[in-house]
Write a structure and sequence with these properties.
The protein has 492 residues and is an alpha+beta fold. Helices cover 37% and strands 23% of the residues. The structure holds flavin-adenine dinucleotide (FAD).
């Protein structure tokens, strides 16, 4: 059934989007809203891509392939959730608890003076200064590094975060408990494999620009339930979702100005095509696209990307092992704890379900299932003594070997814009040029950018990309100063 919007605006324009991850879904919904008829094509039997959930037959539970968190600064992901009507399913918090082996807690979060939050960037400074997890020397080192990160970092800097931290005299405690744990795991790579501009962006957004930008969101429903909203939105707007339809090749007909996409379950024609695939799937499709100038160069860009794994251990106990919703676990292989029973209170049954996440985890990912679960349990008991007396009822280990792409120095040269080598065809996917690391926000941004490009080429340009949050407090002035300095540098 075709919806009102599409009847009124562009009923004759059809776009096929390959890939039902966040990039493909956000492009599809924005274009359906703009009045195009969208055909969203997904290889699997469900939407979500690398951020999805499914019924795990081994434990008879619907679980996410891994806990996915977002932040207040993820304006395009939040915009996509708003568009499909699921933004109220995200639980937001600004509190973060760091726990040392042995159980000592340090609470991080925006600091208040009576009813007021301290102005950015001081809002996050005082809880860091009071954190027992850091020695005085660690705090001084972190303070120096944060102050230095307030100055502009050239976007084309070829320096790695690891090298920059060595130049800025970071202590072992600051390196292990902040930079490796909080930052490298947010970017899912080793410190030496992270380009400085990406690190600076994450630090500014999560800790400096505003309390809102740094607040953390987690879904209160399984991820695929969020995307049921996308499928519903598309159907209401006259668009279709084709599941279990792996794209095999695409052909462009110059005469009719149409694309024909061949999938395992049939062919689809459209005026426009958006490839919203991960980099390795784009590379696989490349030989089955029409010859075009620039296709070989795109192929060389795709070859430069590298995957980083993320592992998650899902544990069901016969009782509650902690009343915390989530925590950062210090000095061990396991990094993050998410108390799914508390975050998703609709989950039935007594006892509790917790998920442990191990980022940038090449060593952990090499472990056998039993060894990985045993190690996770042993370490968890060091943080929560209740684990020793609780009965483990079931456990799942998920290794995502192709979780994210890395952002080493120089990677921007391998991140194309939405423009593709082919006519009426655009690129999306978290790996394209969004300025963001491999995240759902990068995927949503890429989808919105591709949708803008499609609208522009039908002669109906519209602004779809959601703007960034404005820095608050002192960061407003800092930002202004940085802009002025950039202008002066550009003139000189
Ligand atoms: C374990 C793990 C933890 C993560 N944690 C976070 C987190 O906490 N926060 C965060 O922001 N990000 C996180 N990420 C990253 C985030 O999931 C990705 O950046 C984002 O989902 C990528 O979306 P995408 O649409 O670009 O790609 P994908 O999600 O990979 O979507 C591409 C889609 O294309 C489909 N496809 C592939 N080939 C074909 C074909 N030939 N025909 C049709 N369809 C095809 C795939 O099945 C897939 O559905 C995590 C990722 C993983 C794996």
């Amino acid at each position: 059934m075709r919806g009102l919007l599409s009847e009124v605006q562009n009923p004759e324009k059809t776009v096929t989007i390959i890939g039902g991850g966040v990039a493909g879904m956000s492009a599809a919904c924005a274009l359906a809203e703009a009045g195009l008829r969208v055909q969203l094509v997904e290889r699997r039997g469900y939407l979500g891509g690398r951020a999805s959930s499914y019924l795990h037959p081994g434990v008879d539970e619907v679980i996410d392939n891994c806990q996915h968190v977002l932040f207040g600064c993820c304006t395009n992901l939040i915009g996509f959730y708003r568009r499909i009507g699921v933004a109220d399913r995200i639980y937001w918090t600004s509190e973060m608890t760091m726990i040392e082996p042995g159980g000592r807690h340090s609470a991080l979060g925006p600091s208040r003076l009576g009813p007021f939050t301290l102005p950015a960037p001081l809002h996050s400074a005082s809880s860091l200064l009071c954190a027992k997890a850091f020695s005085v020397a660690d705090k001084l080192a972190l303070g120096r590094a944060f102050a230095a990160m307030m100055r502009p970092v050239p976007g084309d800097s070829q320096e790695s975060l690891g090298n920059w931290l060595r130049r800025h005299g970071q202590t072992q405690g600051a390196l292990d408990r902040f930079w490796r744990l909080v930052l490298a795991s947010a970017l899912n790579a080793d410190l030496d494999s992270i380009a400085l501009p990406y690190a600076a962006k994450v630090i500014r957004e999560l800790f400096m620009n505003s309390a809102e930008a740094g607040s953390m969101g987690m879904s209160t429903v399984p991820l695929s339930e969020l995307y049921a909203g996308a499928a519903e939105f598309l159907s209401k707007n006259g668009s279709t979702v084709h599941l279990n339809a792996s794209a095999e090749s695409a052909a462009w007909d110059e005469g009719s100005q149409q694309w024909t996409l061949t999938t395992r379950s049939g062919t689809l024609t459209s005026e426009f095509l958006v490839l919203a695939l991960p980099f390795e799937a784009t590379a696989k499709l490349l030989p089955h696209m029409p010859p075009a100038d620039g296709a070989a160069a795109l192929g060389r860009q795709l070859e430069r990307h590298e995957h980083w794994p993320i592992c998650s251990v899902h544990l069901w106990f016969d009782r509650e092992i902690t009343t915390l919703d989530h925590a950062v676990l210090l000095d061990r292989e396991i990094h993050w704890l998410y108390n799914k029973s508390r975050l998703q209170p609709w989950r039935k049954g007594k006892g509790s379900y917790v998920e442990l996440v191990v980022s940038a985890s090449r060593t952990f990912a090499a472990l056998e299932r039993q060894d990985a679960i045993a190690l996770a349990l042993r370490e968890l008991a060091e943080f929560f003594p209740e684990v020793a007396s609780a009965k483990l009822e079931k456990a799942v280990l998920i290794k995502e070997m192709r979780a994210t792409f890395g952002v080493p120095p120089g990677i921007d040269a391998a991140r194309p814009t939405s423009v593709s080598p082919w006519p009426n065809c655009f690129l999306a996917g978290d790996w394209t040029a969004t300025g963001w690391p491999s995240t759902m926000e990068s995927a949503a941004r890429s989808g919105h950018l591709a949708a803008e490009a499609v609208c522009k080429s039908i002669g109906q340009p519209r602004s779809i990309l959601n703007p960034d949050l404005k820095p608050q407090g002192l960061m407003r002035w800092m930002n202004r100063g940085n802009k002025e300095r950039r202008k002066i540098n550009a003139l000189s």
